[in-house]
What we know:
Blueprint (H helix, E strand, L loop, with lengths): L1 H30 L5 H4 L5 E2 L6 H14 L3 H6 L3 H6 L2 H11 L7 E10 L9 E11 L2 E12 L2 E9 L3
Parallel strand pairs: 1-2
Antiparallel strand pairs: 2-3, 3-4, 4-5
Helix pairs in contact: 1-6
Amino acid sequence: MTNHFYREAKLMFVFPLLIVVVAVGAALTRLGTENLSEVAQVVKVKNAQPAEKVHEKIAVEFALALAEGKVSKAHALMSEELKNKYTVERLGREFELMHAYSSEVPTEVSFVTSMEEFAGKVPGDLGWVYVGVSGKDWVEGITVVSARENSDPKVRQVIFGRP
């Protein structure tokens, strides 16, 4: 009986791990294209709820650009400090890895919530925004903190994935 239990427990661990490995491999294969816009041509993204404030609009614009495969456009919306942390390639890879467990492309980006007062706020920050990003069989999110840089709103911080 112990041997049977051990075999089932082993399968319960190995099978999900195999699924993750295959999903990550599929995502990395898609990333093998030099230009992610090739993948994005089949993506139709809609903004389910309008963003009204500046920090909400830039967060939604940032997420939309990533979901549409316009990684260079998203990169241009980032602060200089954040651009030093994320190359265009790394930014695209981080977005893809966020939903690597699915082979489905993003189909919807939606403004979820925002705050102007939040933990970790520094002088110059405009706000904290959570943007939902989803595909046919997955739901994730991107958290964005925006700030003014040379009078322009820029993405100062980004966190990929649900909290």
